[in-house]
Specification:
alpha/beta, TIM Barrel, 12 strands, 15% strand, 377 residues, single chain
Length: 377
């Protein structure tokens, strides 16, 4: 089974530029990603964010993208599940309508929320986000799969009701979660869900351990859409025609993003025991924030270089058993993102999906023909 590739954006807007202009640029990026062979467009959900990230209403964007694309799959990364941010039934309704308007191209990936900025703005209790995500997913599956459903839980109590309309895909769209803890990977496997896996910059060994937790606990849901485990990995990427070009354009933005991200993990770890794991591997977090060599080669979170270099780096990711790679293309101007989509579509995706159609040098092909001729006699 070939690896699928996704375009993942947080709609990050450069300092001094317009949020509204950036939203239109995002649509252009998604349309180009489809043209260049990407399989998935994945949009983050971030509320009242700092630093230019402005993807506050991705569900609205999906409706627009459903009309201007025809093949690429639409997937949130992720729909936030705290009840005060998104009631699970509203998430189900939006997903069903998006699936219909996209002619069955929607996938629903959920998450619990990982910023105190958003949680405090919506008065979300951090100790309840994990419970509400897991219970909300259970409620959505009931609403999707049963004509008349009911639900009784700690956070949701729903009398007999009918979800109107239901998704186009049957039994329902693929569902998954974003997971960064071993516990959530194991839970996703037990539930027969897909997983979007990330080790929080903690490295190859940590990433392999998370994937093993998912696979070793996998149980197929006989009523669900997945026949087998599905593992996706988000990867930050810098790509240019040469290694040096990629470093010149992307090194500082990628290092800055890593510093901002890793500085927030210890803070989250202090507010609830459910987030305590985020402070583990403190040395790795420090290195990710300060050491470029560690970030590129050891963190299992980032690739950077020419297409040939990126391909070599991706081989290591795919060797983990990953089914999907979502490239985080953000933090640089729109023109650079469009160049990156073009380079990935022209060089990286064909290498993994259609190698027989990738042009090789005249000398390389001639040498192989001559060697086969000699063997043929």
């Amino acid at each position: 089974m070939s690896v699928k590739f996704g375009f993942w954006s947080e709609q990050e807007t450069q300092v001094g530029q317009s949020y509204s202009r950036r939203l239109h640029e995002l649509v252009d990026e998604a349309v180009l990603a489809e043209k260049m062979g990407f399989d998935i467009v994945s949009l983050s959900e971030q509320h009242v964010a700092l630093g230019g990230i402005s993807s506050s209403a991705p569900e609205v964007v999906y409706g627009y993208l459903a009309a201007v694309t025809s093949r690429i799959r639409l997937r949130p990364a992720v729909s936030l599940m705290p009840k005060k941010i998104n009631h699970a039934l509203r998430t189900a309704e939006r997903a069903a309508v998006s699936d219909i308007l996209s002619n069955g191209r929607f996938e629903l990936y959920c998450g619990r929320a990982n910023t105190t900025i958003a949680m405090r703005a919506f008065n979300v209790e951090p100790s309840e986000t994990l419970e509400q995500m897991e219970e909300g997913i259970a409620l959505i599956r009931e609403a999707f799969s049963k004509d008349i459903f009911t639900f009784t839980g700690k956070h949701y109590q729903v009398p007999p009701r009918q979800l109107v309309p239901k998704p186009l895909q049957k039994p329902y769209p693929v569902m998954g979660i974003a997971a960064t803890s071993e516990r959530s990977h194991a839970w996703a496997g037990e539930q027969g869900l897909a997983v979007l896996s990330h080790s929080l910059y903690k490295g190859w060994e940590a990433q392999a351990k998370l994937i093993d937790a998912y696979l070793s606990n996998w149980k197929r849901d006989p009523d669900g859409p997945l026949e087998r485990p599905r593992i996706g990995m988000p990867l930050f990427i810098g790509i240019g025609k040469t290694d040096q070009e990629a470093i010149d354009v992307y090194a500082e933005p990628l290092k800055h993003y890593a510093r901002i991200s890793t500085s927030g993990y210890p803070k989250l770890a202090k507010i609830s025991s459910d987030y305590a794991y985020m402070a583990e591997g403190h040395e790795a977090l420090q290195r990710a924030a300060t050491d470029w060599d560690y970030l590129v080669n050891e963190s299992a979170s980032l690739v950077c270089g020419s297409p040939d270099t990126v391909i070599r780096q991706l081989e290591k990711v795919i060797d983990l058993g990953v089914d999907e790679i979502l490239f985080h293309l953000d933090s640089v101007p729109h023109s650079e993102i469009m160049k990156a989509i073009d380079l990935i579509g022209r060089h990286v995706i064909p290498h993994f999906k259609d190698r027989n159609n990738v042009v090789r040098s005249y000398d390389d092909v001639l040498e192989q023909i001559r060697s086969m001729r000699e063997a043929h006699g």
